[in-house]
Amino acid sequence: MNPFRYGQVVSHRDFCSRPLLLQQLINFAESGQNVFLQGERRTGKTSLIFEAVRKLSGYKLLYIDLLEVKTIDDLCRRMITSIVRSERRISFQKKLLSALSHLRPSLSIDPITGFPTVSFDSRIGMKPDTIEGILDLIAELGAKKKLLVAFDEFQDVLNIRESSLALALLRSRIQFQSNITYFFAGSVRNKMNGIFTDPESPFFKSAASLEVGSIDSRTFMPFLRKKFASGKRRISTETVAAVIRMAGNIPGDVQELCACIWDATSAGESITKEHLAAGLNMIFARERKAYEATLINITGQQLRCLVALAKTDSIKTLSSEFLEKTGIHSPSSVQAALKRLVKLKIIYRHQGSYKLANPFFGSWLIWNGY
Ligand SMILES: Nc1ncnc2c1ncn2[C@@H]1O[C@H](COP(=O)(O)OP(=O)(O)O)[C@@H](O)[C@H]1O
Ligand SMILES: [Mg+2]
After folding, report:
1. Whose CA is nearest to atom 9 of ligand 1?
2. CATH topology of domain 297-370
3. Is 304 close to ligand 1, i.e. is its CB under 6 Å away?
4. What is the pTM of this model?
5. Cβ contact 256:247 at 8 Å
6. Which of 141, 170, 247, 281 could link 253 by a cystine bridge, Cβ 3.0 to 4.6 Å?
7. CATH of 17-211, one of 3.30.70.2190, 2.60.120.260, 3.40.50.1220, 3.40.50.300
8. d(CA 232, CA 315)
9. pLDDT tens track for 151-176
10. CA nearest neighbour of 83 among 130, 124, 129
């Protein structure tokens, strides 16, 4: 069986140890310090949270994923669902139903998953003050047990039209819940910074920051080599380093490429550069349609900027060297093109420069001679 995992939370043997980060997160939890975890997509934020909870003994986790949350109603439902799933005591469920009785809730067991689910009269939309009621329920849970609450993809709360009000309400309750630790994870840097470091934001300075980046190659390389070895495939340190580079040093992408290389090889083989190309081609075949759809949506100038970024390893954008690579003379046109590409989430800002959100897309552009 292919030993590489991607596109999902990894734990136990699939979690490559990152002791420093893990210990920091555990320390925050134990000292009741709220924290916001920042890092690009697929760097391992969610996995780190679950791993920290696994290591901490006696804590209960309330995990609330806010990916693509759009309305207050949606936000409340996700919070309630998480509470219902985490607390099966009948007495608490009764309390929950009575606290939210104005929403006409009904509790049932999902016949397929066996999970308790709560549904509400769909004609009654949840209002901002429902958030306060839900947070009071969380406080009650926290009074009984050591509780951790993790809001994942927290920046998406900004999608909500009344996001300022939602944030203010969340903050007003959370700040008094000193015995509950809150983790806020997010992958859109400027939005997370807006929430936690802008003096105008209700969450300003309300949580410590923890940066989740690439995995230290001194542990990641042996971890990956061991996985290859488990299927009698040999790979040199140098080749593993090349794999990590090709995947932009993003843990999820590294594992995806390794999974493809695994599929392109058999037991007893030594992995060569040719196998890396074969693995990469598998990814291209899988993603080609999406790449082509992206190309339809961008202009010629945007494409030139994208290709220049793919070919350069983070030279300062708007430097003369970069402009030369794009072949566009006007810095303001380049700036406008980059801004649009960020908006389309094809690239993101990174340490004063820009990077492709999907490193394989960059390789595909180069491969195809763009
Ligand atoms: N500690 C780790 N060890 C090995 N692979 C990891 C680790 N953390 C993340 N990954 C890889 O990244 C993928 C995405 O992890 P995830 O925790 O969902 O990231 P994020 O929440 O930052 O998007 C995983 O499926 C796995 O392939
Ligand atoms: Mg995540």
Report:
1. 44
2. Arc Repressor Mutant, subunit A (1.10.10)
3. no
4. 0.93
5. yes
6. 247
7. 3.40.50.300
8. 39
9. 999 999 999 999 999 999 999 999 99
10. 130
